[in-house]
Each structure stands twice: as C-alpha cells, then as structure tokens.
Amino acid sequence: MNLCLMRCTHILGTTYSFSNPYSIPTDRPLIIVPNHQSMHDISPISWFMRKNHPKFVSKIELGRGIPSVSYNLRHGGSALIDRNDSKQALREIAKLGKYINEHNRSAVIFPEGTRSRDGHPKKFQPTGLKLLLKNAPTALLVPISINNSWKMMKYGKFPYGLGNHITFQVHQPIENNGDFDELISDVEEKVISGIHNT
C-alpha cells in the first residue's frame, strides 16, 4: 500500500531518495525519530524501513476518514493519541513502547508535535519520546532528516506541488544510555543538522 501511495505521486514528478548508510538491525526494537513536514513523510518511512515493521504515534483524527490509511493506523498497532486528552495520549504511547520492546518492532514519533509548513524545524516536545525510551529501554534510536515533503502541500491539500525531490537521511543510530535529556538533545541535533530549507 505504501509503495502504491508513493508511486501515485510520480505522476506529479515527485521522486524519493532514502539514504541509509548504516546497518540498521531488524532483530531489536527501534525508536525512529524524524522531523515532520507533511503526510508524505509517512509512506516512504513505512516502505523503506518495512523490515523493521514501523508503527506510528499519530493523532487520533487520522484513524478515520482516509481510505486504507485510517484502517492501517487503527488495526496495524500504531498509537492513536487524542491531543486534548493527555492521559489517553500518554497511555497509548506507553503501550506502544512496551509492544515494540517485547516484539522487536519499531515506533515512529515526530517530536515536533505537528508538521512544519515551510520546512523549518520546530522545537522538539520531549514528553512522548521520553515515554517511549522509558517503556522500550532496549530500543535503538534512529534519527532521520526529511527534506522537501512540505513542498507537496505548500498550497494546502490542493493543488499538490510539482517536481519535488523528497529526501530522507538516516543518521548514526544511538544507544539508549538512560539519560533521556541528553539522548533527546543529541537526536534533535542530528535531525536538524540534515534539514536543508531549500
């Protein structure tokens, strides 16, 4: 499904590059931490990291109304969080952390909290990421820098942008040393270092 969604954007001249020079293990849990520019961040991560079985921390509104995508989020193991109900959100994120830790799956969290509409990164909101780190202590952190997916939706939902080259740069994975503040600062620095607002 995710490959199909990517292929559909080729008609607009969209191309994708996924640079992953590291040997990312498939036999241990991952916490994948990208910046967030648009919904077009999701399918490439799902496809290119499919061997790691990524599950997303997503707002609850996306769990309905989007053909195939909403069904996948509801039934594929992702955490659908209500941003107006902090207790519910924290409970779902903690549950996802425990799940990936037990089953060697991957959680994808966008710590900016919402997408950047102009490509400029927003400050990380650490609460959700800390909760994943706490509940998946064996997980390897994988920072990813995304560029140009915001250009697909710079005019809103319609018309889409044309001729965009969307890039994904995977950075050196980081082991969880238990110092969550240091880890999050390191991850944020790596993600921002690969963002090019062009």
Automatic annotation (TrEMBL):
<keyword id="KW-0444">Lipid biosynthesis</keyword>
<protein>
    <submittedName>
        <fullName>1-acyl-sn-glycerol-3-phosphate acyltransferase</fullName>
    </submittedName>
</protein>
<keyword id="KW-0808">Transferase</keyword>
<dbReference type="GO" id="GO:0003841">
    <property type="term" value="F:1-acylglycerol-3-phosphate O-acyltransferase activity"/>
</dbReference>
<comment type="pathway">
    <text>Lipid metabolism.</text>
</comment>
<dbReference type="GO" id="GO:0006654">
    <property type="term" value="P:phosphatidic acid biosynthetic process"/>
</dbReference>
<keyword id="KW-0012">Acyltransferase</keyword>
<feature type="domain" description="Phospholipid/glycerol acyltransferase">
    <location>
        <begin position="30"/>
        <end position="149"/>
    </location>
</feature>
<dbReference type="Pfam" id="PF01553">
    <property type="entry name" value="Acyltransferase"/>
</dbReference>
<dbReference type="InterPro" id="IPR002123">
    <property type="entry name" value="Plipid/glycerol_acylTrfase"/>
</dbReference>
<keyword id="KW-0443">Lipid metabolism</keyword>
